[in-house]
Write a structure and sequence with these properties.
By secondary structure, this protein is mostly helical. It has a domain of 48 residues. The chain is 69% helix and 5% strand. The chain has five helices and two strands; from the N terminus they run ααβαβαα. Helix 2 packs across helix 4. The longest helix has 37 residues.
């Protein structure tokens, strides 16, 4: 059984999947940082510094006006946190666009590499032999002699 497990783990598909998951986790951290640290500040700047995260409606409980969402939740209030959802949707759209641009770039690079490999080397031109007319003229001239 231990041998079977080792064979299963050693298969290429399992190893490829493990590498993909690890690279995916690292890539997720990069994309989250890019969105949170580079893109969202510009989005907030263009939207007048509005941060949707703390927009909510109190469904039940006693919360003072102007209280942050985390403080309202800590106070035990039932809140409808629509602002956090809006920010999640905005972040998703930004991340999806960034991933789309990266995939588009990688596909263009792959296509360029494939075209390079597909283009055959120019064949050396073979010397053109005499045309049919040239042969007939040569035969005529030979017969005249």
């Amino acid at each position: 059984m231990l041998q079977e497990f080792r064979d299963f783990i050693a298969k290429g598909n399992v190893m490829d999947m493990a590498v993909g998951i690890i690279i995916g986790a690292a890539f997720t951290a990069i994309v989250k940082s890019m969105v949170g640290d580079l893109i969202n500040p510009f989005v907030g700047l263009f939207m007048g510094g509005v941060d949707f995260t703390n927009l909510y409606v109190v469904l039940a409980g006693d919360v003072a006006d102007g209280t942050s969402l985390s403080a309202a939740r800590e106070a035990g209030a039932a809140v409808f946190a629509y602002g956090a959802f809006i920010m999640a949707v905005i972040n998703f759209l930004i991340i999806a666009f960034v991933v789309f641009m990266l995939v588009r770039y990688v596909n263009k690079v792959k296509e360029a590499a494939a075209k390079e490999q597909e283009e055959p080397a120019p064949a050396a031109e073979e010397p053109a032999g005499p045309s049919e007319l040239d042969v007939l003229l040569e035969i005529r001239d030979s017969l005249k002699k």
